[in-house]
Design goal:
This protein has helices at residues 12-17, 24-44, 46-50, 56-65, 74-88, 105-114, 146-157, 161-165, 169-186, and strands at residues 5-11, 90-92, 140-144, 191-197. It is of the alpha+beta class. Pfam families: DUF7691 (PF24740).
């Protein structure tokens, strides 16, 4: 089954601090910037909402207020957190990740490791939301810290042309897209990369 991934460059600590910050202005900013998306998600998840899931905006309120969370509908809080990241971060290219088969990500990690790039893992951008948000399979979430990005970029720059030529060209194209995210993080001190799988 095909999935899609999206990536954002942002201050990871600031994004995590949104959880439980109780900032009404933040709620209004999301509603103003993503009102159409909130309505579209409510339409898409209408059957779950009829079964008791919070609307997109109610889920956003729960994240900003630090709860309460209904673990039976944890996906809604994941999408709410994604909106907070998108509001305050910078969208990164995902040309090679929309669509993508999530089962291929370990092979991508293996190809990167074969080049000596072990500081970051694309598979780890699909795991679970930051605490205290409840666990959900989708959206998957993960992050690369500024330090991991810097180390991963240094590992890439230590590779040789011969090593790069030995990698399948399509896989190399994807790796180079990941390297682009690390370069972007390096230009923004303290910023890292977050990924969402849905």
């Amino acid at each position: 089954m095909s999935s899609a991934m999206s990536f954002t460059l942002l201050d990871l600590a600031a994004a995590r601090a949104f959880i439980g910050c109780r900032d009404e202005g933040l709620l209004h900013a999301v509603r103003d910037n993503f009102g159409a998306d909130l309505a579209a998600d409510d339409s898409y998840f209408s059957s779950e909402i009829r079964r008791g899931a919070p609307t997109a905006y109610r889920a956003l309120e729960a994240v900003v207020n630090g709860g309460p969370f209904d673990e039976g509908f944890a996906f809604q809080y994941g999408y709410a957190y994604k909106r907070l990241c998108e509001l305050t971060g910078y969208r990164l290219p995902n040309n090679n990740f929309c669509p993508i088969r999530a089962s291929w990500l370990p092979a991508l990690d293996e190809a990167m490791a074969g080049l000596g790039i072990t500081a970051v893992s694309v598979s780890e951008l699909t795991y679970s939301l930051p605490d205290p948000l409840p666990f959900t399979d989708l959206p998957g979430y993960g992050e690369w810290t500024a330090e991991e990005c810097a180390k991963g970029l240094a590992q890439w720059e230590a590779t040789t042309e011969e090593q790069r030529r030995a990698v399948d060209p399509m896989t190399m194209e994807v790796i180079e897209e990941c390297v682009g995210w690390m370069r972007a993080a390096g230009r923004m001190p303290g910023f890292g990369v977050v990924g969402f799988l849905s």
